[in-house]
Design brief:
The protein has helices spanning about 50-60, 75-80, 80-90, 100-105, 105-110, 120, 185-200, 220-240, 250-260, 270-275, and strands at about 5-15, 25-35, 40, 65-70, 90-95, 130, 135-140, 145-150, 160-165, 170, 205, 215. It is of the alpha/beta class and about 280 residues long. Strands 1-2-3-4-5-6 form a 6-stranded mixed sheet. A 6-stranded mixed sheet has the order 7-8-9-10-11-12, with no helix packed on it. The mean pLDDT is about 95.
């Protein structure tokens, strides 16, 4: 009997410098799969490389043994260390076709989506060896089958990876937790992605924003996420009724205040999220 790949979540802490006064503590989970080979799902930020290296060494492995990296999407906290890991291992990069441009040209991503501290979070561009789309099957080793699901909303090119043998879903940022800072581009796509995740009935969800969630927790988790996104939309629409300009930072700050979040974190990414609630 073949032993399924072991899955190890690794939490990477980092900060986003919104201003001189505000440095927002954040974290992201990446996932290390070890079978006959080593595979990563996302890489965290560039500064997380040492943590990955140390973790592998504790398991008797080396960074140079990484065979491939599967990226859920192009954002800095997911691709940040990919270039550094590939330089050490020569590994293959696998990612959704829709996010190709931003992964292979991180300067283009910065121009189009200027995240605070971007160049500290991301080591640089990396070529995608295998672009994937909805329904594609990736077999990183003989008894490991990964099905690609398109789960946009958080970003246009977001994908999730479903490990068939274990019915484990690696969902990236497709599930927004209540109280978290909302970042999404398309609210209707977000809802559709949550419905798709519910339909495939995973036994466990490994999210970038959360601890692993198991079968009995998943329906409630997805409903909470849907309710939170609906709450954000309703709040945005109410604030918009009393604001002349819904494309201003004043509007962004007003929404954050109404949501009970720090208005000092207002930035173009959040304004983009709130704008999507008005389409």
């Amino acid at each position: 009997m073949t032993t399924p790949a072991a899955i190890y979540p690794l939490k990477i802490n980092f900060e986003i410098p919104f201003s001189k006064d505000i440095r927002l503590p954040r974290f992201v989970y990446l996932f290390i799969l070890t079978g006959e080979k080593i595979h990563l799902i996302d890489t965290g930020v560039a500064d997380g490389l040492h943590q990955i290296k140390t973790f592998l060494e504790k398991k008797g492995k080396k960074l140079s043994e990484v065979q491939d990296i599967l990226l859920t999407h192009a954002h800095p906290d997911h691709i940040g260390a990919a270039k550094l890991i590939q330089q050490k291992s020569g590994c293959k990069i696998i990612a959704g076709k829709e996010d190709l441009n931003w992964i292979e040209d991180t300067e283009l991503q910065y121009e189009q989506r200027p995240v605070p501290g971007f160049h500290h979070l991301v080591a640089g561009s990396v070529k995608v060896d295998l672009p994937v789309k909805e329904g594609d099957i990736v077999k990183p080793e003989e008894h490991t089958t990964i099905r690609v699901l398109s789960t946009p909303g958080h970003s246009a090119g977001s994908v999730s990876f479903f490990l068939e043998e274990q019915k484990a879903l690696f969902s990236g940022d497709a599930i927004l937790l209540p109280g978290e800072i909302p970042i999404f581009d398309d609210i209707q796509a977000y809802f559709r992605s949550l419905d798709k995740i519910k339909t495939i009935q995973p036994k466990v969800i490994y999210s970038a924003w959360d601890e692993p969630r198991f079968q009995n927790e998943i329906p409630g988790l997805l409903e909470q996420s849907k309710n939170y996104v609906s709450q954000i939309r309703n709040t945005v629409q109410k604030v918009a009724e009393k604001n002349n300009s819904v494309q201003s930072m004043d509007f962004c700050r007003a929404v954050l205040t109404k949501m009970g979040l720090n208005e000092k974190i207002a930035n173009p990414l959040l304004l983009r999220t709130f704008s999507s609630c008005l389409k």
